[in-house]
Amino acid sequence: MAPRRKPLIDTTTALGKVLAFFSISAVCGVLVAGLMSPAVALTSAAANGSVQFFNSLPSDLTVTPPSQSTRILAADGSTIGTVFTENRTDIPLSQMSMNMRNAIVAIEDYRFYQHGGVDPMGILRALTVDAGGARQGASTLTQQYVTNVLNEDLVTQGKSADVVLNGQKGVGDKLREMKLSIALEKQYSKDQILQGYLNIVPFNGNAYGVEAASQYFFSEDAKDLTIPQAALLAGLVNGPGYYDPTAYPDRAVARRNLVIDAMLTHGYIDKAQHDAAVKSPLTLKLNPPKQGCQYATQAPYFCDYVLHQIENDPAYGATQQDRVQRVTSGGLTIKTTLDPRLQGPAQQQVDATAGANPDKWGASLVTVQPGTGKIVAMAQNSRMLDGQGSGFVTTYNFNVDSSDASGNPLGGVGGMQPGSTMKPVTLAAWLDEGKPTNQIVDAAQRVYPLNYPWRDTCTKVTGAYDDAEVSLGAANDLQNDEPNWYYPMSVREGITQSINTATFASAAGLNDFCDIQRAADALGMHNGAGNGQKLDLSTLGNLLGGMNVAPLTMANAFATFAADGTYCTPISITEVDDAQGKKIGGQNQSCQANALKPGVAQAATNVLQDVITKGSGLLIPQKLGVPDAAKTGTNQYNNQTWVVGYTRGLSTASFFGDPFNATARLGRDVTVNGQYYPVVDGAYIAGPQWAKYMQQAVGYYDHGDFDPPPPNLIG
Q: Domain check: are 144 and 267 in the same one?
């Protein structure tokens, strides 16, 4: 027995309800005449109620730019990394292949250029197909665009759960969509709507908009899409998951060929083009987006530092969540100070310093340009993800303060003990009082008891070194690294040879011990784990670098010496542009001339030059061949070691050791990169790392002579 045929119109079925819905739209008088079959009738009361409902719906649609990828760029415009919620890059219609435009219109809405936002013929066609048992959508491209705009606004606001999918739309949702579509057509041209649609529609979970889709599937710009490529993408919008060519190639090709058929039917291509296109094999060249600083093409830890600068800056949003949202969805272009000419050698050098490094010793370099504060390189030997190289995996940034990096609840490592690289701070205080570098101090003195008469005007000096007072809280008598340096010597020799007792004798000879604190403040010294908290140099042990300071802070402090006393706040971001290319932010140079007296900085540099040629830096075999100055540093456990050095144009902090814990293990009897070290000193590993890197870097920046110091500060 033949099955009984369903009546064309039956108001008791879902189809009848759809017909009734369109009848309501007709009564509203906003859809063109002839939209509905005259066979459908409504009562006057129902019609009047529908008119009131329809008229109450909003007709204004604010088309805001959809979520876009944010790019972080180096100083030369090269890409560092990208971040996004949805991988999307907006482009104008002129940069979309005509094949793509034709394909999407042919398959989704071939009457796009004839209707006014809602297509009555399309609706009747869909009804007829649905009545035959099949399914066909009736939404125009304009209606689809409206839906995507509404949904994108919800996503941007963090309301993804409120998104209404096509299959979930009720009569009210459809009426609203139609009214907004009609209004949108009066506000925008067809090409503007098509451009917006192709930029917003999802083609894949990793590709939103046609440019991202073209790059993802074909590694091509959207302007270069061929007929079969464009047809494949146009077919995806109907079901990105169902027609995914990477998972279901047969479905994807069948859908692609259906689009190509539609392009022929509607006159966008000829028969020869059609036949060639449907015969073409499915050829993909996948280019999955890798977003986040962990996938940065260069300087991943610098990338992370830059994002934290944005996320911690109220200029980009009232709350941190607002700032994160702006970065991940706002399509920003963040232009930075990073110089790839230096970053490449820096990364190569830290990787070479520690080798495969099963013991997870850390190596890092960070460089600041004196007189500007620009951070031009930042590298370390670890990796952010497994499989990225031989380095151990950590998200901690060795070079910056805890609040400026990822890794723990506070942020990052938060600095390491700088050891003797802190001694130039006491030297600066000495020089600021007008005392010469060649003045003799008593480096034989090792006892500074609890009641020692320090001359201080701002605070009480704490700490003591006295074997006889250990039970009262004092440390043992002051020690030098080697036994033969307990004798009267010049302040210059004390710094050059890194003699602890000479630094204490200099501090004892000051008119005001508080000048050490003032010098540290002028150099921008602060606690790496204390959110900018100043170092407390009233504690004697801190004169020798007993607290944690970030390498960036050390590099920038020494940059103040190189710049004849001008201190500049470190900056990493030169400009931030929004998705429309309008400048919305950036870090301006903030420099203070005479933070140190120029003569003080020049005389300090004169002494630190001797470190390289006569002192502890003489153990570094590599020489720059240009005027340079530096100071070595090692903590008491030999597991955090440094060289901080500079030319006129570059100041670099080089670190080697355990960046996580100053006391967990000793830097003694260790083998690093195949070489055995009875003890590790700043000049042994951090020193060559500094010198080899700087040899490659100095030529790009000023490397002339330092300015001569005032003769009265030499003596």
A: yes
